[in-house]
User: Fold this.
Amino acid sequence: MAATRQKNKDARIPAHPDVRTISLQQVLEALVDPVRRHIVSALYASHEDLACGTIDLPVSKSTATHHFHVLREAGLIRQYYVGTSRMNALRRDEIDEAFPGLLRALVARPEGPSAGDA
Amino acid sequence: MAATRQKNKDARIPAHPDVRTISLQQVLEALVDPVRRHIVSALYASHEDLACGTIDLPVSKSTATHHFHVLREAGLIRQYYVGTSRMNALRRDEIDEAFPGLLRALVARPEGPSAGDA
Assistant:
């Protein structure tokens, strides 16, 4: 926890919300977007933190930055810098505690017939 | 199945989609709306089919009709008439098979701090 707080002291990243203050509505509004769900799925599958640039997204860099911002505000990811790389960590344990089964249901599965065609 | 088909022959209700053709994206777009999530939660909790008018909603009748329509199109509910009452059945088994854990994660739990205050 001390280490986590230290990460947040980086002035380039604003404070992260307490997941316990986040509503299901906020989480769903973040995850209804397919690009944001793709980011969370990539973090869920990788089991390690990923730099923004390493997640392949079909959007411009500024749009991607916006999506990461929304995910951070919704309590889904924690961001920190390593040098000049902005890293993303899925807040898996906190989300699982606040919204049991949600990550498993929404990001740990194939997307269904439409996405399967892609 | 025969009984289900018979219900759908009612010309007042269009055909229902096969849940296996529905994507997670469609389901999430339906359930991101709090009124629609409330309808599904009510059906999930009641364990029986409910007439449209028996689910208390903070919207006009025409808006409610729209929300039921979106849920039907997303494969979440099945509608049929009993006399002049339009009944709604949660397609629980089909959804559970296509999207394991989704209903439990999204509608079988408290909504979190924001909704808790309401």
